[in-house]
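Listing S7. Sequence submitted for prediction.
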Amino acid sequence: MNARGSCAAVPKTSVEVERAGTPARLRASNRCAILGALSRLGPLTRSEMSRRLAMRKSSVGSIVEELLRAGLLGEERPGAARGNLRLVSAGGFAAVASLQSARLESALVGLDGARHQEAVTALDAGMSPAQVLEIMADELGARAAAAQGRLLGYGVALPGIVDQHGACLQAVQIRGWRGIPVKKTLEARLQQPVIVENKVRCGLWAGLWFENIIQEHDPVLFIEITEGLGGAVLAEGKALAGSGCAAGEIGHVRAGREE
């Protein structure tokens, strides 16, 4: 599994700090924006973050202190208010799983995209979705335990169409996966929120977060060729899902006359 094949709990990478909602939700959005800016742009001062994100200096300062205490940020000059701040790659990890037709890949992914505690579990062709999800929950739990208290969240990448509720609507490569409540099932087992997304869209998110493709290209049509052919779309810094949760999927494209 590489960073593109995982669906870590990745913060938004465009400068879209949410202005509506509860204070807790607003703070979470601002926190994601700060982490995203440091991932895209490298070390920044507090003032630079305030200016680039159009965020109050007091909010930046408060959230930065919180992230420093959590070990997610480091200071180039500790204690210097004008010093640069940077991400700490091993400060936190996402426990992730990527489902293929005959195997399940799992790992811990750090803030820099580095993979740790990788594992591959073979899956029998006759396994039901419930059996696969049982194995997935066990593997995610094992990876979470290896994070030693530095777990940021769970993420799952599926080779199929995934709706906004984390259900697999359809997956051509794995039979029987139609209308499967993946997110709901895993959250009941793990007792923690789980992000569930289409595998190709996860690859696009990884490109945004770890490879910084948004700096050079927007919009983007991201194509992945593995066990099948899939696509995902980036526009104005956002990975689009589309009304049918299948934006970017190529499907059947006619090439000239077909008999």
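Caption to Listing S7: primary sequence and predicted structure tokens for the chain studied. The mean pLDDT is 83. The chain has six helices and twelve strands.
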